[in-house]
Amino acid sequence: MSLHIVKKGILDSIQDAGHYGRQHLGIGPGGVMDFIAFRTANALVGNSKGEAVLEMHFPGPVIHFTADCLIALSGADFGAVIDGVDININQPLVVNKDSILRFQQKRNGARCYLAVRGGLNNELFPYHFSGENEVVALPWKADLCGLYNNDRIRFVQGSFFCQLSESSRQHFCNSPFSITTQSNRMGYRLKGEALQLTEKQELVSAAVTKGTIQLLPNGQLIVLMADHQTTGGYPCIGHVISADIPSLAQSDSGQALAFESVSIAEAETLRLHQEQHLQQLQYSCTFRMQEYFSL
């Protein structure tokens, strides 16, 4: 292990891609909230796409590197510095032994991800840059333009969407909702004008998943996130599309959200294009790293 946590941050946790296929046993998949930042950080250091990372919130931890290592940060920008030197997110960094990583300012986003080459139980990284610099940025960065959606959170309609009153359907698609402080990795509680069904019903619990939008008894909404339960008894009015889950994960308490309805076919196309971009990023980073360290 090449990391020593000198001071813990808020809700730091080690996360991976999640473990699927056990929801029928009541076990949720878990995993990272923002899979784009997760995949990007791992790609930049040459890891496989599913290697575990450190998921951080602000205020972030203080981290002491006990060995030379190759790292990358992605997701939220928390004003990271290593021994007083500002460092970029979405760029691979060679960090020398005994360097200290700190996060000084929340600039944007809600969650930052730290990947270490070889994983968090990595072997020592064999490249050391001598001189005064304790960190050296490698000469390439990940371009994530277009992977996040900063305008509206897109969703496909759920089984109870058509049972909302006409005014509630219009409000849901045309008015903003704010993320409340009662939000976490299990779900985002939203506050807005109360929505209503045309008639109240007693429901049997049904399967839910990441992105499920549930209508609570008080007319407010909750969007299920990475640590969601496996079943729920509240009406499902929609599902946030997979491609927009990372954008939602980087939204913070107090932030306003607007929703846009899309078809299942459009949701699949958006996710496919996103995955193609991430695969190309993985290939490009692997090639650049092999080329750089063979010089």
UniProtKB/TrEMBL annotation:
Keyword Disulfide bond belongs to the record: no
Keyword vocabulary terms for this entry: ATP-binding, Hydrolase, Nucleotide-binding
Carboxyltransferase domain span: 24-278
Keyword presence, Hydrolase: yes
GO MF terms, alphabetically ordered: ATP binding; hydrolase activity
Protein name, UniProt field: Antagonist of KipI
Organism in which the protein naturally occurs: Hydrobacter penzbergensis
